[in-house]
Amino acid sequence: MSADGLPPLRDVIARHGLAAKKSLGQNFLLDLNLTAKIARAAGDLAGATVIEVGPGPGGLTRALLMAGAARVIAVERDERCLDALAAVAAHYPGRLEVIGGDALETDFAALVASRAAGQATVRIVANLPYNIGTELLVRWLTPAAWPPYYASMTLMFQREVAERIVAAPGDKSYGRLGVLAGWRSEARIAFDVPPQAFTPPPKVTSSVVHLTPRAEPLAVDVAVLARVTEAAFGQRRKMLRQSLKPLGGEALLARVGIDGTRRAETLSVAEFVALARAL
């Protein structure tokens, strides 16, 4: 038995035949010390409602419950994992709800509104499947209503993606994702996770990223901001007067007072917002 009185994850995987599927972007974390570290990186979970995506055999799920989460709502697409997760739910009566379905088709705000008790703090904590991680992050960062329903997000990504999320102007990884994350959140890499920590081991190092929503991000239409960053970084080697030509080029830049000879990677989030507002 493990520290929580449940079988070791390797036994759970063997019992339920849970070989990770590449098509689902699955890489299971089996080290409960590591999953506990992720749970700690999420902050104080006592009394919190936690949203988890892709729990798999339940390693991180168990860590979240052991860390004191009042309720974990786990969305799992792989039906093979549901029996294993049901055993975790039985071990923690009334604290784990498993929803079988596709995270990309889930309305998380509505899910939380119908299930979170009172004014409970909501946190999103997940070892995200690699093939949907970035898309989910963008969705969570761009709801129409802000501040969002969650107090923080603690998410696992490939190291390369994590570096893009936390990148600042001038960094080689700075791009559209860094602008979006910097606009509506404060993001940092909490720690790295080596490939050998997973089953099967991926070919790259992973990183846990912690994001805290900004209470009052600069006001701008997210769709227009996306157009500006797409144009600017779509030709990042070119000067802005050229890359932004379809959106007004020199005239647009002049309205904001930005030198047209600069390149996209030198602009701050505030400057991108100013361009979007002018557009």
Count of helical stretches: 12
**Uncertain segments:** none
> Order of strands across the widest beta sheet?
4-3-2-5-6-9-7
Q: Estimate percent helicity.
A: 25-40%
Q: Look at the structure and name the CATH superfamily of the largest domain.
A: Vaccinia Virus protein VP39
CATH architectural group of the largest domain: 3-Layer(aba) Sandwich
Give the averaged pLDDT, no decimals.
93
Structure commentary:
With 279 residues, the chain is an alpha/beta fold. The chain has two domains: 9-213, Rossmann fold (3-Layer(aba) Sandwich), CATH 3.40.50; 222-278, Helicase, Ruva Protein, domain 3 (Orthogonal Bundle). The chain is built from twelve helices and nine strands. It has a seven-stranded mixed beta sheet with strand order 4-3-2-5-6-9-7, sandwiched between helices. A two-stranded antiparallel ribbon has the order 1-8. Helix 3 (59-66) links the parallel strand 2 and strand 3 (71-76). The longest helix is centred in the last third of the chain and has 13 residues, at 222-234. The radius of gyration is 20 Å and the shape is elongated.
Reconstruct the topology from this structure.
Layout: H1 9-16, E1 28-29, H2 32-41, E2 49-53, H3 59-66, E3 71-76, H4 82-91, E4 96-100, H5 108-115, E5 122-126, H6 133-141, E6 152-158, H7 159-166, H8 176-184, E7 185-193, E8 198-199, E9 206-213, H9 222-234, H10 240-243, H11 249-256, H12 269-278
Helix pairs in contact: 2-3, 7-8, 8-12, 9-12, 11-12
